[in-house]
């Protein structure tokens, strides 16, 4: 409806001349075009702001679907103030643990791993170990390695690892059983983890299963609960519903604090959550609230000069795994050794399409 039609409906009044109507219509058209241009610019800015670091691709080792690949310096967008024409977007600022975990829970990926044959996680581990109580200054050693684990969904999985540094040592590739996912003190299968939506009450004894009440030399319960819950969020093939529950549960652990903004060893920005226990050190997680991911785990023991770190490189469902070779002992990795202790004298048969077995578990 233009100005002429509006005036016709107004009643018996003297209408303006056609020249006036034409001039007013022209001004309205100019204003409309200007408003559309501003709205288009705003939409472009919003689209740019939504560009995150989640990448879906295919790796050389496995055909991967829905993998979240986190590149150095990248950070998925998080909650931000609604931009206006004159005000640029403002980065989120958090002041409490609850604010961080609520944002992370809201940003949790809707990729459900339960239908995929494997869950692939790639991490870079930087470990420090210091000997104390010896004459002279403390002797510390540093190792950096990359680990890739394909957790099998009802089938044998694979662990691949190797040290970085001089010459790039090739490391190892071994098969692992399907119930090689550690949750607290238990080894569980992928199906057991996702059998139902865990409530917070059910999660408490599960993630605290490592705790031995009254045992000397053990950290308090909340230290282990915080660490195990964070490890689940970082590594385990859990459904989106369980991830949301875990995030909210993390905020209820007594003693957890927000240390503020932090940058992980890959140069990615996040927020650090920590818990400290005398004689047991500091366990921290760098969280990206915009993607719902834990970017890095840091453990600083009292005798160490700096924390050991486990940095998440990528995580997501995978369709295939590399072939593996029979192996045991120290070259098979911590996941294998933990499973061997829980399953003495077990024999594994590779899943269809895999080679390298059967494997006899020998402690």
Count of domain modules: 2
Q: Helix coverage percent of residues?
A: 25-40%
Strand percent estimate: 25-35%
Q: What's the gyration radius in Å? A: 28 Å
Strand-pairing-aware structural class? alpha+beta
Question: What would you call the shape?
Answer: globular
Give the N-to-C terminal Cα separation. Answer: 84 Å
Mean pLDDT rating? 65
Total DSSP helices: 8
Contiguous runs where pLDDT drops below 50 for at least 5 residues: 1-16, 23-90, 165-170, 209-216, 327-331, 347-363
Order of helices and strands: HHEHEEEEEEHHHHEEEEEHEE
What is the number of beta strands?
14
Main beta sheet: 10 strands, antiparallel
Summarize the structure.
Keywords: Membrane, Transmembrane, Transmembrane helix. With 363 residues, this protein is α+β, with helices and mostly antiparallel strands.
Annotation keywords:
single chain, alpha+beta, membrane
Please give a structural write-up.
This protein is α+β, with helices and mostly antiparallel strands and 363 residues long. The chain folds into two domains: 3-49; 97-360, no CATH class. 27% of the residues lie in helices and 26% in strands. The chain contains eight helices and 14 strands. It has helices spanning 3-9, 18-49, 97-106, 190-193, 200-207, 221-235, 240-250, 333-342; strands at 68-69, 118-131, 139-152, 157-163, 172-176, 181-183, 186-188, 257-263, 269-277, 281-288, 293-300, 308-318, 347-348, 359-360. The strands form three sheets. Strands 1, 2, 3, 4, 5, 8, 9, 10, 11 and 12 form a ten-stranded antiparallel β-sheet that branches. It has a two-stranded antiparallel sheet with strand order 6-7. A hairpin with a 4-residue loop joins strand 10 (281-288) and strand 11 (293-300). The chain is globular, with a radius of gyration of 28 Å. Keywords: Membrane, Transmembrane, Transmembrane helix. The chain crosses the membrane at residues 48-70.
